Amino acid sequence: MGNFVQHRLRPGQAPSNVASVFLSSLANTRELTKLQAQLSLYRATQTTRSPSHQEVIFGAFIARKISGSKPNDASVLQALAAANHLGFFHGQLAKWLSVAASTSTSGSTGCLGVTTNGDAITLATLKGLAHNGKIEPPQIANRLTSLAKFKSAGIDTGTAKSNTAASHTNGNGGCVFTQHANNGLAGGEDKTHKIPFAAGYFYVDNDEIKTEDWTALVPGANDAHVKTWQAFNQYTKSTHQPNYTKISDLKQDTEFREATAAIIYDDKDASQLDNKLKDLFGDTDDSFEENFWKHVRETKIDGAKFGEKDATTIQSLGDPIKLTNAIYY
Q1: Which of 83, 145, 181, 254 would be a feasible disulfide site paired with 18, CB 3.0-4.6 Å?
Q2: How far is it, in rounded angstroms, from Cα 181 to Cα 169?
Q3: What's the rounded Cα separation, in Å, for the pair 227 and 161?
Q4: How many Å apart are CA 193 and CA 179, to the nearest integer?
Q5: Angle at 66 between CA 62 and CA 70, to 5 degrees
Q6: Domain Trypanosome variant surface glycoprotein A-type N-terminal: where (predicted)?
């Protein structure tokens, strides 16, 4: 699970699947577990010395962080909404290709239904997997063949025509991106439903649409799949993966402040909390390292005793399992 949790999403970058989106909203539990194991190993090497305030506070903070490392409801909803958006997009693309290549959907050939070799493509030859967007290439008579309307410059939509109504057939018009006409996806007409266009950002709402007239494209900005994309962008822009060994990040963490207040002030008046943090850990990331964490990670160990002969300090063990094993030697 840890490797997935570390997956970072950049603003504007679509997630690859539901799992990566959902896990991106979790705290980095792998990193937390490693820090906890390093601190535990440090304590196991310091049995003759009492834990310092810094050690107790940091240990309590890590324990709190791990026990509460689940996203709030809003983060879950935004993450799942983002995955919904991508599923919708892949689903629309797969459906478009499948229907366009069909020879049976409406009793006539879809606009991609004939290849350069004259072979019909059936609905089953194009498959869309919504969870990762993979689309299998068409296979006809055990060989790959190009689709008639796919050209080196893109999809051939044919020459401009007055409209895409019933008088235009798939034989002379190429592919249009709606099924509002006989020249549509399945070679048939549908004048009843609004047809998604451009992954749902617009709808075609006119069966007499002209190729040079885009006024019939009705914005779909209020639809759910558009809203989820906007929510995902908002979520990723607000996402920050903290470094738990930097005091600048720790001081911004509610659980770190709560752990410090509980230990130092017994959850009472914590108005001097920032001053106390400065006294204990310093005021810079370098001082946190020098005052506390350096002593943990540079503690000497004998890795040969537990099969890690190259491990001479705590920091040389990055695997939480190895760190845990080391505690018992």
Answers
A1: 83
A2: 9
A3: 35
A4: 9
A5: 140
A6: 26-329
**Calpha distance 20→179 (Å, rounded):** 35
DSSP class of residue 148 equals T
192: how many CB neighbours lie within 10 A of its CB?
8
pTM: 0.46
Phi, psi angles (nearest 5°) of residue 229: -65, -40
With beta carbons less than 8 A apart as the criterion, state whether 17 and 132 touch: yes
CA atoms within 13 A on the CB side of 257: 13
Give me 323's structure tokens.
């760190």
C-alpha separations of 289 from 52, 148, 293, 300, 311 in Å: 15, 65, 5, 17, 21
Concatenating the DSSP letter of every residue in 22-68 gives: HHHTS--HHHHHHHHHHHHHHHHT-TTSPPPHHHHHHHHHHHHHHHT
As a whole number of Å, the CA-based R_g of the chain is 30
| Calpha distance 221→130 (Å, rounded) | 22
Provide the pairing of β-strand 195-197 with 154-155.
Answer: unpaired
Beta-carbon contacts of 277 under 8 Å, excluding residues fewer than 6 positions away, are 247, 251, 260
The pLDDT assigned to 120 comes to: 44
Segment 220-262, tens digit of pLDDT: 544 544 454 455 555 555 556 788 888 888 888 888 888 888 8
- Cβ atoms of 101 and 112 closer than 8 Å: yes
Q: CB within 8 A of 151, min separation 6: which ones?
A: none
Q: What's the CA gap between 63 and 69, in Å, rounded?
A: 10
